[in-house]
Amino acid sequence: MTRSDFENVLKMGENVCVEFKRGGNGAQSDTFETVCAFLNRFGGDIFLGVTDDGKVIGVPEGEVESIKRHIVNVASDPQQMDPPFYLLPDSFKIGKRNIVHVRVPPSADVHRFKGVVYDRLHEADVRVRATEAIAQMFIRKHEIYTERRIYPGIRKSDLRLDLIPQVKEMASAFRPDHPWRKLGTMAFFKSAKLYARDPVTGKDGFNAACVLLFGKDDVILDVFPPYRTDAIMRRVNVDRYDDRETVKTNLIEGFDLLMAFGAKHLDDKFYLEGVQRVSVRGKILREVIANSLIHREYSSSKTARIIIERDRLFADNANRAASHGIITPENVRPVSKNPILASFFKQIGRADELGSGTRNLYHYTRLYSGADPVMDEEDVFSITIPLNDSYSPEVGEDAEKGLNGTQGSGLKSGLKSSLKSGLNATDIETMSAIAEKPSITIPELQTRLSLSRNGVKKSLNRLKAGGRLRRVGPDKGGHWEIVEYDDKN
């Protein structure tokens, strides 16, 4: 959260989605009552180190990390928060004062804190005691979220269980101590909220989110007959298309297929963010594709589309609109359309905090095209990314400055030579990441480069085949070594 964002929050004050806590004695029970209420309503933001009237007092410097750990532990403890929920608090400074920030998304479940259901009304956390009111909350959440529908007839044999090790690896790369690492198959599905109990029928089973993420292709077709994403490149033959990919598979592999299609047809413009090489194309595709897969209304018969044309990248999908009109960083009000899918993608590093996608798209589209994207929230949600092949971020001296501090002068001259010889920006980013961490893993490279697993492997294979990179030691426990260059290479 930027300073200006926080200042705007202070001006608005507490409301249905914002809560201030003094935090002098850490996160107390009332903090978790607010967490519970936000989970049960629209989600929201909690700021520890701020009084009720918006005065910033901060929390003690030495207690910031312990407060964050305490919040994570309590929210994920089923004896206190039922069902548990994984939160990722962060912190920032305003002057010399420390603020702990907890972003709480809306949940597809009804949560209890110490056995009590809380709901958020205006700026208050209200205990919900009446059985009828609690039942209505279950029904409301069940009806709103298509992803929550339980399918008792779905068995493990209907699912792509072979994807689970890959998912765990991705989650561990994003967060080394991720709890999924050591869970068995059913414990994993339950932890990811993909196996649950239908509050209306009382039956246990895999839900629609699980089918979309792990279902075999024919099972997905049975549950969601209209489901598909059409990726189209239309630049020469504008009446039909020049290339097309129809994606009907699970969302995990579907994400990779769509990323590969975009990488195939869009230039990857070189850009340095500080000293780190960033794939601007990858950043934009990640946001557009993740939005299409995470926030789509899957009960609709509308086909989702991602279309690459001469002057724009256009994507649209069925939507359950929370507002209407053009979305900008100034007016965005994040609402998760599919909280289970959103949480899952966040756990594996393919999505960020709710609301950050708008800011990221504006930032990277301006770098890529020199113009702003257009995001239109209606019953059909659309994103338009202007394309300008002649526009590029500044490289020049910045590129050479970014080479300082890398793996020796040989690498520095090697990367300069790579720029001159036409080695693509993805391979340069791969070399830079390896220079910073020779033991880096493929899942870590996926997250760093915003590429699919196959995309990372292709880059590594190109670098090895070109004599620029070699592997020392085994796949597990070994490391990468960048070959020294002289200016003749």
The helix/strand class is: alpha+beta
The oligomerization state is single chain
Strands, count: 22
Broad shape? globular
Instruction: Tell me the number of helical segments per DSSP (H or I, 4 or more residues long).
Output: 17
CATH architecture assignment of the largest domain:
2-Layer Sandwich
CATH topology of the largest domain: Heat Shock Protein 90
**Which percent band covers the strand fraction?**
15-25%
* Count of discrete structural domains: 4
* Strands ordered across the widest β-sheet: 13-12-16-17-20-19-18
Question: Could you name the ranges where pLDDT drops below 50 across 5 or more consecutive residues?
Answer: 395-422, 485-489
Rg value: 24 Å
* Major beta-sheet overview: 7 strands, mixed
Q: How far is the first residue's CA from the last residue's CA?
A: 44 Å
Helix content: 25-40%
Per CATH, the class of the largest domain reads: Alpha Beta
Mean pLDDT: 85
